[in-house]
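Preliminary data (for renewal application), pyridoxal-5'-phosphate complex.
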Amino acid sequence: MNLLLDVNIIVDVCAERPLFGKASRDAVNLALARGFGVWIYAGSVQTLEYTLIGELKRICADDELCLTNRQISFRARALLKDFCADKNWLAALSAEGHVFEAQDPEDEQLIRALDRLIPGEIALLTRDEQLLNRQDPRILSPEQYLTRRPEARPIDFIDLKGQQNDIRPALETGIHRVLHHGQYIMGPEVKELEAKLGAYVGAKHAISCASGTDALLMALMAYGVGPGDAIFTTPFTFIATAEVISLLGATPVFVDIDPKTFNIDPAKLEQAIIALKSNDPSIRPLPLNSVLSTQSSALIPKGVIPVDLFGLPADYDAINKIAKEHGLFVIEDAAQSFGAVYKGKRAGALADIACTSFFPAKPLGCYGDGGMCFTDDDELAAALDSIRVHGKGSHKYDNARIGINGRLDTLQAAILLAKFDIFPEEVQLRQEVANRYTALLDGASVRPPHIPPDDLSAWAQYSVLAKDEAHRAALLKSLQEAKIPAAIYYPKPLHLQTAFAALGYAPGAFSVSEDAANRIFSLPMHPYLQKEDQMKIAEIMKRAC
Ligand SMILES: *Cc1c(COP(=O)(O)O)cnc(C)c1O
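Predicted structure:
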């Protein structure tokens, strides 16, 4: 249970009030020790200072100490500064201002602030009789809090709350700035984010957009992809990667994955290109191209979309070389790999165009949908910029091509700027969490992820392989019983999805992907995952075999 502290509790602790100080301090420390957030309401600042000064004066008088008013006020501020150092500030919102019709406006402010938070997750800690007499289950005295049965802190699959607490001041300042300047579309935060992320990745141009899916769509549109074109990609990915190909009337040509990295297998990619060019499905499985392309049955190979699955970049040295030999473009699907490194270069700078996603659960996520394209190519960048805004030409109502409404919201850009401040540190923390998992899973019956020696994953997921489908089911059941969340990415490869039935791929066409889909699952992964929780998870991985 998180705690919102009433002024009297903070004064208890800071002034070490003989009667109440101990219970208040114990309650606050207990919440902190259990890993819960302790909140101070920003609207209480003035009352806090005033009340603490009054209390310190009383103590001085009782103890016959001669301190000047200035000394007491200085002492009060020093005590409050120390107390607040490891607490969260809960902002005062304008809806909490109009409270003068209430009996006690200050209490009313706290109740209104409490209304914002999820009941059962937060309690208002107070000694105010009037508040306690409301019989509101969200309001507790320190004594009541201390005698509650301890709740187990749940293990999160992805912990967005812990992160939010770390960046709340920057987040709220950023959001409010947008509310006040009012440039909701393509505001200054959008440009700032593009400049920062482009520099981080090492790409000359960064073009933000409305989602990772739009980023991929815009990249294909920038190359003019359409009916009759073949785009090679992996069947072991999220639907969006291949969906955008079909959406433009082009045909996805699936290529099986490497069993160690789960990323597209470059050797098979080359064979698939040759198979398509010679129209010979005996080399590698090909789609029933006559179904989707209208007149001509021969598809024209145009490009490749490798996916950096689970945060690990695909093998771009090999892929880019093959693509170049065959005159194909390469679009990096970096939706899961923002922050990753491939042979000294950042994900997002590994192909002609890279596309990432800011879906909340991705390594760098916003609080809604968002995405970005990166490229070093000036012409492609100009095309992407135009496509993003309805194919705009020299001005808004001059349309040079068919485009989409694909802009990133200014509010999401502001949120991303706050999140990006701690992102490099989070990438490091994810790496530490992954290293701990791998060490803890030594001797377990699941295969941990394989990361090539020159690469760093962004650890969007920590995915392991069970021995077979039944083994995976048993492990998932044990995790579920221990209330540990887990997920299967991805249970069905794309070539077997109904949406792609028209491509005519049969089961067995991509055996490595199908085998992975049967055995893979992902464990909780986020920068704030605790070692004790990982030990619990590893214990289950060892026990259930
Ligand atoms: C999430 C994801 C996308 C799509 O991103 P959205 O922002 O959700 O549209 C595309 N490709 C892969 C591999 C993804 O994981």
